[in-house]
Amino acid sequence: MTAAHPGDLKVLIVDDDFHVAALHAGYVDAVPGFTALPPVHDARLVPLRVAELRPDLVLLDVYLPQGSGLDLLREIDVDAMVLSAAAEPATVLTALRRGALAYLVKPFDPKLLGLKLRAYARYRRVLASGPTLDQGEIDKALKALFAGEDPATASGAATEQSVLQAVAAARGEVTVVEVAEVVGISRATAQRYLAQLAQAGHLRLNLRYGSRGRPEHRYTAG
């Protein structure tokens, strides 16, 4: 687990397998804008940890020695996704009926979890866009969460990933020129990828106005 940065979405992982829990925590920490909290391995401790740590999202296994993850879905009042080897239709249906925002069958490609987390981040941003929401904004939030993407396509080109990593590594605002230098690409190419990533919700675009009045585009991890 890495230290949380202001604005990061906090993720609590519930899995009785210490190795798997640590692996999933690493997957979470690799996604800009997310921080994994210390995992919980005992189902009986989950309500207490949720109350103490106030996570934004719980990644929950179904098979737990001290209880069922399906029962925890009813007990904890927090967004949750299920990560489990359980693939029976009844189990999946129950998890979704009880509020799971996603269901990933173990073992899964880490890129798939990354896609789900980024979709969740976009969903949260839309829902936090104003004091009230109209129907269009609610539909937009649900589309961001559930539209889904093909992992092979959505993982993007190596350059796109390098641009995303460069912004995340900066841990603050970064300019187009700075990204171009770090990645080793032209300014125009960096601008194109940054604009695409910002439009997709993976990065935040901030405009800074200088003395001449022209805005400078600065980007931070989404």
TrEMBL record:
Carrying 4-aspartylphosphate, the residues are 61
Predominant location category: cytoplasm
Q: Which SMART domains match?
A: REC (SM00448)
Taking every annotated instance into account, which residue ranges of this chain make up the domain Response regulatory? Answer: 10-121
| A Pfam family per the record | HTH_IclR
Q: Which UniProt keywords apply?
A: Activator, Cytoplasm, DNA-binding, Phosphoprotein, Transcription, Transcription regulation, Two-component regulatory system
Against InterPro entries, the record matches this protein to:
2C-system_Tx_regulators, CheY-like_superfamily, Sig_transdc_resp-reg_cit/mal, Sig_transdc_resp-reg_receiver, Tscrpt_reg_IclR_N, WH-like_DNA-bd_sf, WH_DNA-bd_sf
> Where is the protein found, in the record's own terms?
Cytoplasm
Q: What is this protein called?
A: Transcriptional regulatory protein
Organism equals: Arthrobacter halodurans
